[in-house]
Amino acid sequence: MLLTVDIGNTESVLGWFEDLTPVHTWRIATDRRRTADEIGLQLRGLLGACDLPAPERIVVASVVPALHRVWLAVGGVLDAPLRFLNGGSPIPVRLDVDHPLEVGADRIANTLAAAELYERDTIVVDLGTATTFDCITADGVFVGGVIAPGPTAGTDQLARATAQLPQIHVEKPARVIGRNTQDCLLSGGFYSVVEGIDGIVERIGEEWEREPLVVATGGLARVVGPHCRTVDRIEPALTITGLAIADRYLFGPPADSDG
Fold first, then answer.
1. How many Å apart are CA 64 and CA 62, to the nearest integer?
2. CB of 47 within 8 A of CB of 35?
3. DSSP 126
């Protein structure tokens, strides 16, 4: 059994896979202060609550370098071999950008998943702490993209910078025109994200001169994606599915496999 871990700046997404099917997923806070023993204990609790055994292998994508050594130790705590996906991994994608080693592991996982699952030109819109737009050709070449503030970045900053405006969550408002401060913020926060996604995707399409599939992923994909006119598919588990695909190349086929 395979455990995939997508370590983001704010949250980490874990997936328990059987083949390429995510049987269970969890979303936990990314805490740079936790030790390997603490993380191992938390993982055992999550697995135990779902009546799952310890994983046989762990594949990790991380954009938080400070946690790499900790997660390597987590593999030891769980007695499971652990490997990181990065720009030097032996996977069948190409990073056609100025500095390939600077490409985030989550974007590499998205590239691998899009190439193997869709086999067509794709823009992956990943809504996390940052919103990334990954441009991926049908034959698995990452040609670059866009990095923008994440869905909550604007509302968080607004709440910090003003004395009387409250913190809000990103969710669809009942009306565009708010009749109180809370509803005005809710509308502005939500539709600035929606219109920002549509605007960037349309500009990418004009410059790229292709008609790509547009896939939304990440924690807020189901909240925002249905209201974007440019989004074709919503796949919240795309990144960890890319890690499950990477497992084939990082660890190789099982010993009893004919492949």
1. 5
2. no
3. E
**Residue 246: inside a domain:** no
Full DSSP string of 117-171 = HT-S-EEEEEESSEEEEEEE-TTSEEEEEEEEE-TTHHHHHHHHH-SSPPP----
- Size of the chain, expressed as the number of residues it contains: 259
Closest CA to 122 of 192, 193, 211: 211
CA distance 93 to 85: 12
**Of 84, 116, 143, which closes a domain?**
84
Active-site positions? 106
Q: Are both 28 and 98 inside the same structural domain?
A: no
Per-residue tokens: 236: 């919240």
Q: Give me the phi and psi of 142, to 5 degrees please.
A: -85, 115
| Secondary structure of residue 52 in the 3-state scheme | coil
- Pairing of the two strands 94-95 and 21-29: unpaired
pLDDT tens digit string along 12-62?
A: 999 999 988 899 999 999 999 999 999 999 999 999 999 999 999 999 999
How many domains does the structure of the chain reveal? Answer: 2
**Strand ranges of the sheet holding 130-136, from the earlier edge strand across to the other edge:** 94-95, 141-149, 130-136, 122-127, 213-218, 233-234
Q: What is the pTM of this model?
A: 0.90
**Same domain for 134 and 69?**
no
